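Methods — Computational structure assignment.
A single polypeptide chain was analysed. Its primary sequence is given first, followed by the predicted tertiary structure written as structure tokens.
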Amino acid sequence: MSISPTSRSRRPAGTPTGGQFAPEVHAEPEVALGRARPLGPVPSSDPRVQAGEVLDAVEYDGVVFHRRRGGVYGEWPYAMRFQFDRPLTNDERSLVAGAIGYAYRATVAGEPMGWPEVDSPYSLVISADTTKTRRDDLGIALEEFEDRLPEIIEEGSPIRTTNRAGEGTKGTRLVEGVGPIGVEVYYDSVFMDPQVPPETPTHVTDDGGRQPLSHPRSMMTSDELG
């Protein structure tokens, strides 16, 4: 997988420099599948990764992916990693990849994502050049992507209300869902907000800033976001 780790700064004006990558990793409370441990990057071949343990930083094919959590969010990613709370079958991997691609097109509105690569029974890595987004603010676009992703993976794309896609397509979906499943999102380019403790998740406000959430979002599911 050829992924450029180069990133461009998009820090809000006046925000102190925190570095492209978090110098430390922290655990969020009550993480599904057990608590994430404060470890440095762990190779995807590690037994813990292969067993589905949630870790803050995972290295795959020479690229380090950092888990999206409070105070740590995507900067200018060139690739993403998606970890689920159960192993995926081959058919589910195809459906999940289609759902991720659909959510990406609907929110980030960039070039198509790459082919998924399997780094564990629980996870996928997909290249995505977010610098090609057509959105004015990538931070807001990624927030929308994270918010919509669990529901689209679980239920699929919206049901078609017409036959514009072809005869008999009304009432069908472009992408089918896989049912209830939790997901963690990882980015290869992240920014750590020095003003927000990593234990405190944030959301994008109407004016484009970030504000702490009252409850953490880990292993997001569509029920939690509903």
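Note: The chain has a mean pLDDT of 78.
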